[in-house]
UniProtKB/TrEMBL annotation:
<feature type="active site" description="Proton donor/acceptor">
    <location>
        <position position="147"/>
    </location>
</feature>
<dbReference type="GO" id="GO:0006085">
    <property type="term" value="P:acetyl-CoA biosynthetic process"/>
</dbReference>
<dbReference type="GO" id="GO:0008776">
    <property type="term" value="F:acetate kinase activity"/>
</dbReference>
<dbReference type="GO" id="GO:0006083">
    <property type="term" value="P:acetate metabolic process"/>
</dbReference>
<dbReference type="GO" id="GO:0005737">
    <property type="term" value="C:cytoplasm"/>
</dbReference>
<dbReference type="Pfam" id="PF00871">
    <property type="entry name" value="Acetate_kinase"/>
</dbReference>
<feature type="binding site">
    <location>
        <position position="384"/>
    </location>
    <ligand>
        <name>Mg(2+)</name>
    </ligand>
</feature>
<keyword id="KW-0808">Transferase</keyword>
<dbReference type="InterPro" id="IPR000890">
    <property type="entry name" value="Aliphatic_acid_kin_short-chain"/>
</dbReference>
<keyword id="KW-0418">Kinase</keyword>
<feature type="binding site">
    <location>
        <begin position="331"/>
        <end position="335"/>
    </location>
    <ligand>
        <name>ATP</name>
    </ligand>
</feature>
<feature type="binding site">
    <location>
        <begin position="207"/>
        <end position="211"/>
    </location>
    <ligand>
        <name>ATP</name>
    </ligand>
</feature>
<keyword id="KW-0067">ATP-binding</keyword>
<dbReference type="GO" id="GO:0000287">
    <property type="term" value="F:magnesium ion binding"/>
</dbReference>
<keyword id="KW-0963">Cytoplasm</keyword>
<keyword id="KW-0460">Magnesium</keyword>
<keyword id="KW-0479">Metal-binding</keyword>
Length: 403
């Protein structure tokens, strides 16, 4: 089966074509600056790369360009867009309505639209991508894979805040958790790598990118996730603050005479390691370079980040009454061996010992704990597109067989 994976944002649309049998990426790319000047980047498994300006006044034109390129006799990887069996859409917020992936139809679009309020930046942008594909490929099966779905197994004790219960009942204010597609892929890949049954292990996944979250997965089901009602809660991130006492925000707003939306702008865009390092950088590589040159604020930002990750790991080990695997993934988790060392230094009490030679390795999946360690510590490259393709293929197969 050939799966077109689409990740649609407000002004960009990322795509991959994956052969579900071989799991090979046949082509991938991104349409950026949609509605502005339109930049189209495209790469194929044969080594071809295209980067060009392309008029894209909206997402429909972006999808049109990518379909024409995919089927182009010279540059394409398929003969006709009808060769695409299914489109897998990455969808951010499914609220409590979606606990798994779904075939997208009018009812699903309606239900998703009802979740727009919960993710005003992401869901409408995802839906624009869905509508563009529906218009141009009305007969192609479409499957939606939600970032919140894997986290829907959390119990009320984990997902409820200490707020009056009616706010959950009326407005569905609760912890949803994000990065679910990545946490699912990585926790399952870890078990596969270790030769374990995923239904029998306790895993803590540390998805440490620009946005960062930690997830406790017990016997294949999410027990807790550090992101909350929005992706702002939890760890200190690139530019997001993570956990903050709400009382401090009221105090800040009064002192600086700020509106609620101005405070939110600070929490989302001006905080995290960027804010702590006095605007030096949100990029962990730049912070590391600065730390080496004795920039104390860059060093402090990285120190706070590592401390917070370790605290969450400790609390999730308690939440699951033990842990078998700890996995680092995403930009920082996969590449920053110093941060991994700093985090694991806090975890000696769990019987964790790291082999520093292995920790300097690079690759798709490798173990960095040594033979004496009581917990396996792994580094695994996340692959959300492959997870979407797998889930879309699993849903589509029985349906397409009947057609
Ligand atoms: P997102 O998908 O949330 O934008 P990514 O998973 O792509 O984030 O991660 C981006 C982060 O990864 C950036 O802060 C970047 O500095 C960090 N990163 C990438 N490569 C390295 C590296 N070699 N060492 C340290 N940090 C890295």
């Amino acid at each position: 089966m050939k799966i077109l994976v689409i990740n649609s944002g407000s002004s960009s649309l990322k795509f991959q074509v994956i052969d579900s049998q071989t799991e090979e990426v046949m082509a991938k790319g991104v349409c950026e600056r949609i509605g502005i000047d339109g930049i189209f980047t495209y790469k194929t498994h044969r080594g071809l790369t295209i980067k060009e300006r392309a008029g894209m006044k909206d997402h429909k034109q972006a999808v049109d360009i990518l379909l024409k390129t995919l089927a182009d006799p010279q540059n394409g990887v398929i003969k006709d867009f009808r060769e695409i069996d299914v489109i897998g859409h990455r969808l951010v917020h499914g609220g409590e309505k979606f606990t798994g992936c779904v075939v997208i139809d009018d009812a699903v679009i309606q239900a998703m639209t009802e979740c727009n309020d919960l993710a005003p930046l992401h869901n409408p942008a995802n839906l624009v991508g869905v509508e563009a594909c529906r218009e141009l490929m009305p007969d192609t099966l479409m499957v939606g894979v939600f970032d919140t779905a894997f986290n829907q197994t959390m119990e009320p004790k984990a997902f409820l805040y200490g707020l009056p219960y009616q706010y959950y009942e009326i407005y569905k204010i609760r912890r949803y958790g994000f990065h679910g597609i990545s946490h699912k892929y990585v926790s399952e890949r870890a078990a596969e790598f270790m030769g374990q049954n995923p239904g029998r292990v306790k895993t803590i996944v540390c998805h440490l990118g620009n946005g960062a979250s930690i997830c406790a997965v017990k016997y294949g089901r999410v027990v807790d996730n550090s992101m909350g009602f929005t992706p702002l809660e939890g760890l200190v991130m690139g530019t997001r603050c993570g956990d903050v006492d709400p009382g401090a925000l009221e105090y800040l707003a009064k002192k600086e005479n700020l509106s609620l939306s101005e405070v939110m702008q600070i929490l989302n865009k001006e905080s995290g390691v960027l804010g702590i390092s006095r605007n030096y950088s949100s990029d962990f590589r730049e912070l590391k370079d600065a730390e080496i040159k004795y920039n104390d604020m860059a060093a402090l930002a990285r120190e706070i980040f590592a401390y917070k990750v370790a605290k969450y790991i400790g609390s999730y080990a308690a939440a699951m009454n033990g842990v078998d695997n700890i996995v680092f993934t995403a930009g920082v988790g996969e590449n920053d061996s110093d941060i991994r060392t700093e985090i694991c230094d806090y975890l000696e009490f769990l019987g964790i010992t790291i082999d520093e030679v292995k920790n300097r390795e690079q690759g798709e999946a490798f173990k960095i704990s040594d033979g004496a360690s009581r917990v396996n510590v792994l580094v695994i490259k996340t692959n959300e597109e492959l997870e979407i393709a797998r889930e879309a293929a699993a849903v589509a197969e029985p349906i397409l067989k009947k057609r």
